[in-house]
Amino acid sequence: MVPFIRDQFNDKYSVARYKQYLNDIWKLTNGENDFRVCETPLFLDEELSSKLQFAAEEIVSFLLTDEFKKNSLGAIPEKLVVPSEDSHPLFLQVDFAICKDEEGKPIPKLIELQGFPSLYAFQVLLDDVNRQFYEIPNGYTSYFNDFLKESYLRLLKKAILANHDPKNVILLEIEPWKQKTRIDFILTKQYLGIDSICISEIIQRGKKLFYKKDGFEIPIHRIYNRVIFDELQRKDIKAGFDFHSELDVEWAGHPNWFFKISKHTLPLIRSSYAPNCFYLSDLKKYPPDLENYVLKPLYSFAGAGVQVDITKEILDSIVERKDYILQEKVEYMPLIKTPDEYSRAEIRMMFIWLDKEPILVNNLLRTSKGKMMGVDFNKGKTWVGSNIVYHP
User: How many CB atoms are located within 10 Å of the residue 10 CB?
Assistant: First the structure.
């Protein structure tokens, strides 16, 4: 995106330094690499950075409308509604593919929305390690809205802890020590002082929740929720408490927003930065160019159940049509120059929503050389995986 920065980075790159870079990142997991960190971050020019920020803000502004509030009421499966929902999500992610416009210039196109936390702690470490091992140009940052590491961590602390003692706040997950994102949990502990607790280890006494530490039961006053319900159902793990009962606890990221701001929202958004998208149940006839669409289940995570090559017969065979969307495909442009072929990029714009409006604070980069993002499409390839975006 900034040719002289890219050329300088590539010229100075070495496999030996990349291995040292990875060793420094993964020392927190005793050298176990849980996901692939790309060899390079992405350096954006001012033009694309501005487009990304404008697109993210425009799409997020829809979440403030009465239309969104009305249409989100039916987003949560009835058996999965959790009481005490707050007025807006605390964490919000907007994912964009970087594509070409009519003039061949890069443009962001909406891929996903998520009212759920992302790697808010890991991206802090990644920026630190990038600056330790690579020459990040002066004046380039991974943060937005004038945040620096210290002010960003203060905001994150306020969002997750509120006014509670860290010992009374937990990060809630399903077997957190087995999750690919466990390095984010370890760093959340380092930065904020809260423990990661498995949902099966929670103790419920009436409306109050507890976890055990050093032989003592510690009251839980606030939960940083990282539990995804479909994973909980898939793994058939028994929770130590009832999600769906009234509890004397605060949510740092209420579970209902995982469903309300999700694929369910995509057909409602009208923006030049959003591809066409429809609820399958609303279509009386299919688009004539089905080869240019992808089928997505509403209730899935990490790309599970997505069908790229679809036909009329496939769509006709679906019984629960209200549980699927049909989204126009986007074509990722070759963006990042690498030693063999260009990588394609997807950028997650990360928000925290404390007060009246969400604040754009950080980002996450995913790169690919395959048909789609993800491990299965990048086996045996280099200069792919996750990293971070720097912008002027």
Answer: 15
Residue 294 corresponds to which tokens in the numbers above? 């992808």
Pairing mode, if any, of strands 344-352 and 91-100?
A: antiparallel
What pLDDT, in 10s, does the model give residues 97-142? Answer: 999 998 999 999 999 999 999 999 999 999 999 999 999 999 999 9
Helix 149-161 to helix 122-133 angle (10° resolution) is 160
Amino acid identity at 173: E
Q: How many beta carbons lie within 10 A of that of residue 114, not counting itself?
A: 21
pLDDT band at 305 (very low <50, low <70, confident <90, very high): confident
- As for how many domains the chain has, the answer is 1
Give dist(CA 359, CA 182) in Å, integer. Answer: 25
Whether the predicted model's global pTM rises above the 0.70 cut = yes
In a domain, 349, yes or no: yes
Helix, strand, coil in percent for the chain, rounding step 5: 35, 25, 40
The helix or strand, by DSSP H or E, that contains position 6, with its residue range, turns out to be: helix 3-12
Looking at the domain assignment, is residue 383 inside a domain? yes
